[in-house]
Write a structure and sequence with these properties.
Number of helices: 25
CATH superfamily of the largest domain: EAL domain
Structural class: alpha/beta
CATH class of the largest domain: Alpha Beta
Strand content: 15-25%
Radius of gyration: 40 Å
Number of strands: 24
CATH topology of the largest domain: TIM Barrel
Bound molecules: ligand C2E, magnesium ion
Length: 650
């Protein structure tokens, strides 16, 4: 910056360097006279050759001439600058200089405000990049004092400025993850609270702590631990909205500040999205690592940032109490109990798959006339570590609210096909498909993959969908279904008659089977209006060439009525309750011992395997009906119902 200007002077007139003993004012004046004698040379030395960017500018701000350093600095040629106004160099994101109210210094002419802007400012190069300079200006006057033009000088300070900004950034940034650190948090939180309060909304805090991270460090080493943390931070960053801030508070502790949270649902949705970053395992040094996190949530508007942080921390402490993992706790008063339960259940459900806690139970579907076993419906169960065996009604709704549905659906489909492939060749498997899953991209490929992997012929798979799914399916879904049915897979319309437009649904999709809902079957004997309706449904099914299965047959009267009215197929406790597959060992020794007395929704499963006739190679132990059937052996000898009447016969 302070390089000497190369000035070539004839040797005899070379001025002595300042400070040289004997150098006097007279000598210096002579040197200047010499310089002035050759103005071209002076111009070259002081302006064109100057190591500082300079431009001669008229009083209105138009460039007359720019030196090479100015061209290099601004990325423009001397020709392209000449005649242009200096505001060409201004950064477009800065306020117009004219708005800054700059005034010339006393005794200074009325210059264009761009010329008055002495000091540090931001400019833009011709390639759009940012540039920081210290600007100064000097007015050049004629001999009579009239201002003639301005010499504008720019000193490039971009590097220094960057270094300063970097230092500030580093002070507020966690070096490992690149996330803002605890020091940055207070400021952001104060800002978020103020902003949200103004908008009548709240600030939500999601305080996450990775479970057993010390164990990960111990097992894999600290370097791998660091890699995991930065991957986790990256995923967090991607899953936050622009208005949210993810912060690393310390070792394995993170916090997300969410501005403008409307209510509990909003906070729940955010927590859900954040926790989903743990769905996929992390890969560190070619090893897959699955992490879980405990979470403390809080929501507030009229409180200090410190109070909010304390609330989140106390919720997190409760979540981690007694060494618990993957728990979500909410600061009391912020969320209702049921909200917490749903959130908690959802977190646990995410891990249920990995922890091998899901089960498929199978319920027989039989030919009503001779009780021949036709196949089984796969029904999902969750062997929850603390709550016991849960029926789908206890957890599927939770999954329906988020992306878990397709994960669960894929698992069910694959497991059911693998199981069914081990049964006798004539037995089919029915799999329930949720509307969400069916509408998802890649559904048909998933079915094809499940069939291929298991070797199950497509004709042995029937997908059960509900009326509303069929009714409201988008065109893309219809196409995906067509691809599946073209392979030979069939479709059943589940819970038929419970929707408001069952018949329309039949026209939208290539339905093969309708399953009359058990709410109709329950009343078919006692309620003439229901009887008339079921009669109608059976006729409709027959008329349309559909198979009809009556669901939920619990007693012999219902079975007899349906048989009389032409219903061909049936399912219900009368023919067997949903039950798990026996283990291969049990099949080998020819003994079907049921998982003892499993209590699903309060119903005790019977102790004896059921009598479904056509025994598959590996057959789920279809269970006999409830005790009511024991007393109602009205069917002829050898019938299913006789067998049911006396469990000891088995
Ligand atoms: P669904 O497909 O209509 O299944 C029949 C339900 O009725 C089953 O309940 C079954 O246990 C019950 N059931 C069968 N026979 C009788 C009977 O005689 N009396 C009575 N009271 N109930 C009987 P579950 O297993 O609780 O399943 C409930 C619903 O959950 C199913 O209704 C189905 O819509 C859904 N579901 C089950 N598994 C899955 C699955 O893997 N994926 C999806 N998306 N949904 C599933
Ligand atoms: Mg079903
Ligand atoms: Mg049903």
């Amino acid at each position: 910056m302070r390089d000497a200007v190369p000035v070539s002077l004839p040797a005899p007139e070379m001025p002595r360097s300042p400070g040289t003993p004997g150098g006097g004012a007279g000598q210096r004046l002579r040197a200047i006279d010499t310089l002035l004698a050759d103005r071209g040379q002076l111009f070259q030395a002081l302006f064109l050759g100057a190591p500082i960017a300079k431009a001669l500018v008229d009083l209105d701000g138009h460039v007359l001439v720019a030196n090479p350093r100015m061209c290099a600095l601004t990325g423009r040629t001397a020709e392209s600058l000449a005649g242009r106004h200096v505001d060409l160099l201004a950064h477009p994101d800065d306020p117009p200089v004219g708005d800054l109210g700059l005034r010339p210094a006393p005794g200074e002419p009325d210059l264009d405000p761009n010329l008055l802007l002495d000091g540090e400012r931001r400019l833009r190069r011709s390639d759009g990049t940012e540039l920081w300079v210290v600007q100064s200006h000097e007015v050049v006057r004629q001999n009579n004092g009239t201002p003639q033009f301005v010499v504008l000088s720019l000193v490039d300070v971009t590097d220094r400025r960057r270094a300063e900004e970097d230092a500030v950034r580093r002070a507020f940034m966690d070096p490992l993850t690149g996330l803002p650190n605890r020091r940055a948090l207070t400021d952001r939180l104060r800002h978020a609270v103020a902003l949200s309060r103004r908008r009548g909304l709240q600030v939500g805090l999601v305080h996450l702590n990775i479970d057993r991270f010390q164990a990960v460090n111990d097992a894999l080493g600290h370097e791998a631990g660091d890699l995991l943390l930065s991957q986790f931070a990256d995923r967090l960053r991607w899953s936050t909205r622009v208005e949210d801030t993810a912060v690393r508070l310390g070792a394995d502790e993170f916090l997300v500040v969410a501005e403008d949270v409307e209510d509990l649902d909003g906070l729940r949705a955010l927590a859900d999205r954040l926790l989903s970053v743990l769905d996929e395992p992390f890969v560190v040094n070619d090893r897959e690592v699955t992490l879980s996190a405990s979470v403390g949530l809080t929501l507030g508007a009229d409180m200090t940032p410190d109070d909010l942080l304390r609330q989140a921390q106390s919720a997190l402490t409760r979540a981690k109490a007694d060494g618990q993992r993957a728990r979500i706790e909410v600061h009391e008063g912020a969320l209702s109990r049921s909200d917490v339960d749903a959130l908690q259940l959802e977190t646990e459900l995410r891990h249920a798959l990995d922890n091998d806690e899901l089960r498929l139970f199978y319920q027989p579907i039989v030919h009503l006339a001779d009780e021949t076993l036709l196949g089984y419906e796969a029904l999902l169960r969750w062997q929850h570590p603390t709550r016991g065996l849960l029926p789908p009604g206890a957890f599927l709704d939770v999954a329906e609210n988020n992306r878990l549905t397709s994960k669960l659906g894929a698992w069910v489909l694959r497991r059911a096909c693998l199981d069914a492939a081990t049964w006798a060749d004539d037995l089919r498997v029915h799999v329930n498909i949720s509307a969400r899953h069916l509408a998802e991209d890649g559904f048909s490929e998933l079915v094809a993959a499940a069939l291929e992997e298991s070797g199950l012929p497509p004709q042995r798979l029937e997908l059960e969908i509900t009326e509303s799914t069929a009714l409201f399916a988008a065109e893309a879904t219809l196409h995906s279904v067509a691809v599946v049915t073209d392979q030979g897979v069939t479709l059943a319309l589940d819970d038929f008659g419970t929707g408001y437009s069952a018949i329309t649904a039949l026209h939208r999709l290539p339905i093969h089977t309708v399953k009359i809902d058990r709410s109709f079957v329950a009343d078919v004997v006692t309620q003439p209006s229901t009887a008339a309706l079921v009669h109608g449904l059976l006729q409709l099914g027959r008329g349309m060439g559909l198979q009809v299965i009556a669901e939920g047959i619990e007693d012999l009267d219902q079975a007899a009525w349906l048989l009389d009215h032409g219903c061909a197929m049936a399912q219900g406790y009368a023919f067997g309750r949903p039950a798990p597959l026996p283990s291969p060992a049990e099949v080998l020794i020819g003994e079907v011992t049921e998982t003892p007395a499993e209590d699903v929704a309060g119903e005790l499963l019977p102790e004896h395997p059921g009598p479904a006739p056509a025994l598959p190679r590996q057959r789920p132990p279809s269970s006999p009906a409830g005790h009511d059937l024991v007393d109602t052996g009205r069917f002829g000898a050898g019938s299913l119902f006789d067998e049911l009447a006396d469990p000891d016969d088995d």
